[in-house]
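Dear Dr. H.,

I hope your travels went smoothly. While you were away I took the liberty of generating a structure for the chain from your last submission, since the lab meeting agenda had it listed for discussion. I wanted you to have the full record in hand beforehand rather than looking at slides cold. The sequence, exactly as received, is reproduced here:
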Amino acid sequence: MNWLRKLLIWLRWIFARKRQHLIPCLDVSALPQKLAPHTLYIIGQNGHRWHVAMICPCGCQATLFMNLLPDEEPCWTLTEHENGSASLHPSVWRNIGCRSHFFLRQGTIQWCRDE
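The corresponding predicted structure, in token form, is as follows:
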């Protein structure tokens, strides 16, 4: 029966991974008044991008801003993929509030473990 329990845990993990929704990316010239959850807003104009913003995926409703300008710190790199998803590098780590720590990789949130 132990093998059956392990199989059920493995199947639950596989189906949970398939249910992960890709976070869509929206190019905007200005941040809207109300942000949609599970959406990455890319802020810029004329092919120049300055920031990305999103609502914290933990559910605390905080708005997160990540700088894309290389001459300011901290700075993130945005990579867009063929399937319309995006990745941010390095990770997003809030040191106040909810203290969330995660990567955005190919449109999915990958949580970092607490050490």
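Two observations you may find useful: The chain has a mean pLDDT of 86. The helical segments are 2-18.

With kind regards,
E. W.
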